[in-house]
Amino acid sequence: AFQRVKDKDVVTYNATITSCTKGRQTSRSLRLFKEMKDLKVSPDVVTLGAILNACEKGASWADAVSLLLQEKQPSIVLFNMVASSCAKGHQWQHALWILREVRRQRLRADATSFNSVMAACLRGEEWEH
């Protein structure tokens, strides 16, 4: 049905990406996100939230980090979502890097930030950092 829609806009993509994410179709969500950008449909905060949610549910921490690196002005919410993806992927090194980036960007880490990093360290069995 989605492929038959002629004038796809950000709302159409957001709804479809969110639906794919709920259905645990991470790779499809990522393909739609790429298609969206290729067609010059600008992602918004809803898009980023949906695609990062897909990365988290699909254990695609590397894709989440890649999206973070592409953002010009990432928010603490974006950093936290990526840190959570890293935690689920047992990527404590990347989670710690994210915490350093939060400080470098002069953002204020919150309880979610620290909880995600601690979860990553726990899952990666790294407690000395």
Relevant terms:
129 residues, mainly alpha, 0% strand
Summarize the structure.
By secondary structure, this protein is mainly alpha-helical. The protein has seven helices and no strands.
Task: Indicate the topology.
Blueprint: H1 10-22, H2 26-38, H3 45-57, H4 61-70, H5 76-88, H6 92-104, H7 111-123
**Helical region count?**
7
Element pattern in H and E: HHHHHHH
Beta-strand content: under 5%
| Large-scale geometry | globular
Profile the largest sheet: none
Q: How many angstroms does the end-to-end distance come to?
A: 49 Å
| Mean pLDDT, all residues | 88
Number of strands: 0
Helix content: 55-70%
- Class by SSE composition: mainly alpha
What are the segments in which pLDDT stays under 50 over at least 5 consecutive residues? none
- Rounded Rg: 15 Å
What would your notes on this structure say?
The radius of gyration is 15 Å and the shape is globular. Helix 1 (10-22) packs antiparallel against helix 2, helix 3 (45-57) runs parallel beside helix 5 (76-88) and helix 6 packs antiparallel against helix 7. The protein starts with 9 loop residues before the first helix and ends in a 6-residue tail after the last helix. The model has no long low-confidence stretch (mean pLDDT 88). It is an all-alpha fold and 129 residues long. It has helices spanning 10-22, 26-38, 45-57, 61-70, 76-88, 92-104, 111-123. It has 7 helices and no strands.
